[in-house]
Structures are given as C-alpha cells and as structure tokens.
Amino acid sequence: MIEIKRVDWHPEAAIAAVDQAAQRAEGAAAESLLNRARERAPYRTGALAASGSIGEGEDGTLVGFSARHALPVHAHPEWHYAAGRSAHWLEEALEQEASEYEATVAGELERGWP
User: Fold this and answer.
1) How many whole angstroms separate alpha carbon 86 and alpha carbon 93?
2) Residue 109 in contact with residue 17, Cβ under 8 Å?
3) Contact (Cβ atoms closer than 8 angstroms) between residue 114 and residue 20
C-alpha cells in the first residue's frame, strides 16, 4: 500500500507555464488566421493581403489589415471579387476556421501544462 504524507506544489511555476503556453497558442492561432484571411482578401495588386499583420493590444493579440483601401473594400460586401475572395475576408476566415483555432489553442495549452 502506498501512502502519501505530503505534497508540495508551487503554483507560481504552473501559472507561468500555462501563461507561456497560452501566449504560444494565441500566436499560433493568430498566424493561422492571418494566413487564411490573406487567402480570402480581395486581390488586385496584392497590397491588401500584404498589409495584414499581427500585433498586441490591451485585450490580447490583434490581427488586422492596414492598407489604405482595406476599410472601403470591407465596407462594400456587394462588390464582387474573384472566386473565394470577399469584402469580409477576415471575419469569414475566423468564422469558417474557428474550430481549427480552438483546437490549436487547446493543443498548445495541453502541451504547456506542467
């Protein structure tokens, strides 16, 4: 028979490991989202897709597009684009790939758990 008399647990190390795993997961999901959104962005010269970037904000990781024409293109969903491309490229990429991003985050958190 095994008897456990004492268990020492240091929550600081566990919390730090989970925080690092969460940051990796968020970064991996953001990178995947950016790539999928670039594939959907309207394409004429490539400037719109090339303007996509990942940044840090108060609420976490941000994915966005900074080309001067990004907002006007986004504001006109009635405009027609080549196959697979649309005015709401970022939202559509997020909605259609949500389960993949969730799996990415869950996998990173699981691997990062001490």
Assistant:
1) 10
2) no
3) no
- Judge whether 32 and 112 are in contact, CB under 8 Å: no
* Dist. CA 19–CA 78, nearest whole Å: 42
Q: Are 63 and 52 in contact (CB under 8 A)?
A: yes
| Residues 34, 40 contacting (CB under 8 angstroms) | no
Beta bridge partners, 60, equal 57
- 3-state SS class at 64: strand
100-109: per-residue pLDDT in tens?
888 888 887 7
DSSP character for 79?
A: S
Q: What pTM value is reported for the model?
A: 0.79
Task: Please give the pLDDT value at position 34.
Answer: 95
Contacts of residue 76, defined as CB under 8 A and 6 or more positions apart, other chains included, come to: 87
* 33/91 Cα distance (integer angstroms): 10
